[in-house]
Amino acid sequence: MIVQYKFDLLNVLIQSHYDVSALQRAQVLLLVYLQLRFYKFPYYR
User: Which domain of life is it from (predicted)?
Assistant: First the structure.
């Protein structure tokens, strides 16, 4: 699932060159990815 997040993030970053809202989607995906990491692995902090 995390690999899928990375691929989605990569696709959104590629599309962000043509779409401004895609950049916002990339930021949201990154926030969700970080929150999932902190939620699943809180000891990484």
Answer: Eukaryota
pTM of the predicted structure, to 2 decimals:
0.39
* CA distances from residue 1 to 17, 19, 41 in whole angstroms, order as listed: 25, 25, 15
What average pLDDT does range 8-15 have in this prediction? 72
Range of the domain at 32: 2-44
**Cβ atoms 29, 9 nearer than 8 A:** yes
Per-residue model confidence (pLDDT) at position 17: 60
How many CB atoms neighbour CB 21 within 10 A? 10
In the chain, the number of structural domains is: 1
